[in-house]
Design a protein that fits this description.
Elements: H1 14-58, H2 63-87, H3 89-98, H4 112-119, H5 130-133
Length: 134
Amino acid sequence: LQVPCAPSQPVASSESRRFTNKHSKKALKASLTLGILLGMFFVAWLPFFVTNVTQAVCGCVPAGFFDVLTWLGYCNSTMNPIIYPLFMRDFKRAMGKYLPCCRRSGEPRPSAISLSMKNSNSGPRAATSLKNVL
């Protein structure tokens, strides 16, 4: 008795290799962005938290030094809106769409009503009942 064997899958085509290559580049860029953001967060806030714990234990940290470390953390929060557009195309598009200083000439300005309609789930909908949901 012979069992028919399933045909083996063909070797990856050039299109699937391109697809894999494209996604690996996106994953690399995403991990790079995340690494930069987390690295900056730790560089900015870790000294503050270590100093904060040291201050609670021994009370030997000068007030001026503590203030400098606090402002270093605040500077990290200031850097995030600069870092995100540099590395994320979607964030850059959104900034350009809603901030007048970043909008390209010729792009229409979104009205408050259209923004409100987009953000709320209002508008025409199909009738929804519990029976349709389940």
